[in-house]
Amino acid sequence: xxxxxxxxxxxxxxxxxxxxxxxxxxxxxxxxxxxxxxxxxxxxxxxxxxxxxxxxxxxxxxxxxxxxxxxxxxxxxxxxxxxxxxxxxxxxxxxxxxxxxxxxxxxxxxxxxxxxxxxxxxxxxxxxxxxxxxxxxxxxxxxxxxxxxxxxxxxxxxxxxxxxxxxxxxxxxxxxxxxxxxxxxxxxxxxxxxxxxxxxxxxxxxxxxxxxxxxxxxxxxxxxxxxxxxxxxxxxxxxxxxxxxxxxxxxxxxxxxxxxxxxxxxxxxxxxxxxxxxxxxxxxxxxxxxxxxxxxxxxxxxxxxxxxxxxxxxxxxxxxxxxxxxxxxxxxxxxxxxxxxxxxxxxxxxxxxxxxxxxxxxxxxxxxxxxxxxxxxxxxxxxxxxxxxxxxx
Length: 393
Hints:
Blueprint: E1 29-35, H1 59-72, E2 79-80, E3 87-97, E4 104-107, E5 111-112, E6 125-127, E7 131-136, E8 149-152, E9 163-171, E10 180-184, E11 189-192, E12 212-219, E13 224-228, E14 234-239, E15 245-246, E16 257-258, E17 263-264, E18 275-283, E19 288-289, E20 294-295, E21 299-300, E22 302-305, E23 321-324, E24 331-336, E25 345-351, E26 356-362, E27 367-370, E28 377-383, E29 386-392
Antiparallel strand pairs: 1-3, 2-21, 3-18, 4-16, 4-22, 5-6, 6-14, 7-8, 7-15, 7-18, 8-17, 9-10, 9-12, 10-11, 13-14, 19-20, 23-24, 24-27, 25-26, 25-28, 28-29
């Protein structure tokens, strides 16, 4: 959570992302747009050169600065997107094809707190600041993010608590160092409060607007709960949503992987994309917390295409079914391969005696299979003629 005593919105952490390609000579992406909402880590003074005014800043200059910082610390930095609606857009240096299974990972700094992560059947708790992921193709070939964008549907897309068309307006405060007031499309009001540990001049991205900043998108429900520790002290715990969001699960979790096949249009209809060239991440929660936590703001630490190594399971190599984690303890997530014609097909989980122990309907969107009440051992997940071995420890 946000208890880091620095006024600079970059938070450097060399051990942030295990398994990153930190030795590579260049990043697989380039930042082309940075439009943060107000927040405690947004500090425009980082961009200013000597005698330069904030009104002189432009997107190209800011992105050049960000890309230089990224190259210096590949896959070990954070960029805060601020409150709801703040975003960052990157261009992939090579088009990414939509292949079977997950296609890329968006890195953040989400983590689980073991005290609030009892089992995969429940929401893991710790620090999760979910951001919605969007993708686009460079259809006109001009290298700019000006073609149609498609949202990657996640586990909360169709939830009744999610607001599909939400707009928030942030206002520059009367005092440049004051709290940032806002009003939303539901008539609610609030503030992005200043934090003692982040005393920079302003939390408002002043290069984007002179009086107010209007941002829109899909609003996910608040994910924070105030919990009481054995000592009697209370703290905020931010719980992860199922799948499909940035900065929502730890970087080494497959639940932070993204699949291009999850793309939907403005009406929520699935879209078939052969490849993508741009990725955008947008803070999707509007949440202000006390006790030194502040606003919920998605952190961005990079995008990386996923390698496609062997799973070590001879059946999975030719199967239409993707399973993780495997082996598992209390249950596992599963989905059909991208573009599978059998999406939405009935499936079954069988023990080695041939008894069907669970029924489900598989699609390219992940489903969770609860095995808590099943004995340890080997099981088969079957869809048609395809099957994958699943081991419960």
